[in-house]
Design a protein that fits this description.
This protein is an alpha/beta fold and about 130 residues long. The protein has 5 helices and 6 strands; from the N terminus they run βαβαβαβαβαβ. A 6-stranded parallel beta sheet has the order 3-2-1-4-5-6, with helices on both faces. The chain starts with a strand and ends in a 5-residue tail after the last strand.
Length: about 130
C-alpha cells in the first residue's frame, strides 16, 4: 500500500517520531499496533486504524498489513522488544523504511544491522 505507515507502540516516543517524519502523501494511512486499549483509543482519535496486539507477533504485524507498508515505526518501551519487532518487520517487508526509537544509544548500531533504516535515540524516562 502506497503511503501506509504502521506504528508499533503508540506512546510519546511514537508521537515524537511521527512529528519528525515527512509524510509523502496528502492523506497517509496509519495503522497502530499496541496491546494497550487506551493507547489504541488515542490512535483512533487521531485518525489511525488500530490493531490490538503485540508487535513481536507476526500475526499482529500481518493484520496491520506491515508486509505492504511503505514505512514502519517501532516505538516500544523496551529496546529488546524493539529489536525483535524490527527483525520481524524486515522479514515481512524488505522494502519498508523502518524507523526505530531506542532508549539506549549503545543500541543504535545493532538496530541498524538488524534492519532499521533510521534510529532515533529518545531520552530515558525518570
Amino acid at each position: 500500500m502506497i503511503g501506509l505507515t504502521v506504528v508499533v507502540g503508540y506512546g510519546d516516543a511514537a508521537l515524537d517520531v511521527l512529528r519528525h517524519l515527512p509524510l509523502h502523501v496528502e492523506n497517509p494511512e496509519v495503522v497502530v499496533v499496541d496491546p494497550d486499549p487506551i493507547a489504541l483509543t488515542g490512535a483512533l482519535a487521531n485518525g489511525a486504524r488500530a490493531v490490538r496486539g503485540d508487535g513481536r507477533d507476526v500475526c499482529a504485524l500481518r493484520q496491520a498489513q506491515a508486509q505492504f507498508a511503505a514505512r514502519v515505526v517501532v516505538a516500544v518501551p523496551d529496546d529488546r522488544d524493539g529489536l525483535q519487532i524490527t527483525m520481524a518487520v524486515r522479514g515481512l517487508n524488505q522494502a519498508a523504511v523502518i524507523v526505530a526509537a531506542v532508549r539506549d544509544s549503545a543500541n543504535q548500531e545493532l538496530f541498524t544491522r538488524l534492519g532499521a533504516d533510521e534510529v532515533f535515540v529518545r531520552a530515558r524516562s525518570a
